[in-house]
């Protein structure tokens, strides 16, 4: 499911490049060749946070019973039908999220916290948040 969302976010890369906004992924572990296998789906820089500092002081998890939820089954089936295959290596129960962070003191312009496996951020919301960066100062670029 992460691969599907990574691919969708990477589709925004041309817009992000025009604005000078970088695209980063923070992952919690590097098991085997997983980061290498993830790279074709994500067109940005990938950082490993083995101490899980980026994930906050309270880890948000979903257990095995989460796999029985209708929304999760729907998300897995949808990703599978689009040709995205996951993996079963490593710790797979920590819920992820997405942040659009503005330059300087702007802070977080948009955040999405995954509520269940496959709960993706709305790309329109991401695009709107990126546009806030542009509106704040069109000459201001991330470096």
From TrEMBL:
Keywords in alphabetical order: Antioxidant, Cytoplasm, Redox-active center
Pfam families, alphabetized: AhpC-TSA_2
Gene Ontology molecular function, alphabetical: antioxidant activity
Coiled-coil positions: none
Main location group: cytoplasm
Cellular component terms per the entry's GO annotation: cytoplasm
Keyword Cytoplasm: yes
InterPro entries (UniProt xref): PXL2A/B/C (IPR032801)
Keyword Protease (UniProt): no
Localization terms from the record: Cytoplasm
UniProt similarity note: Belongs to the peroxiredoxin-like PRXL2 family. PRXL2A subfamily.
PANTHER family membership: PEROXIREDOXIN-LIKE 2A, PTHR28630
This protein's name: Peroxiredoxin-like 2A
Source organism of this protein record: Astyanax mexicanus
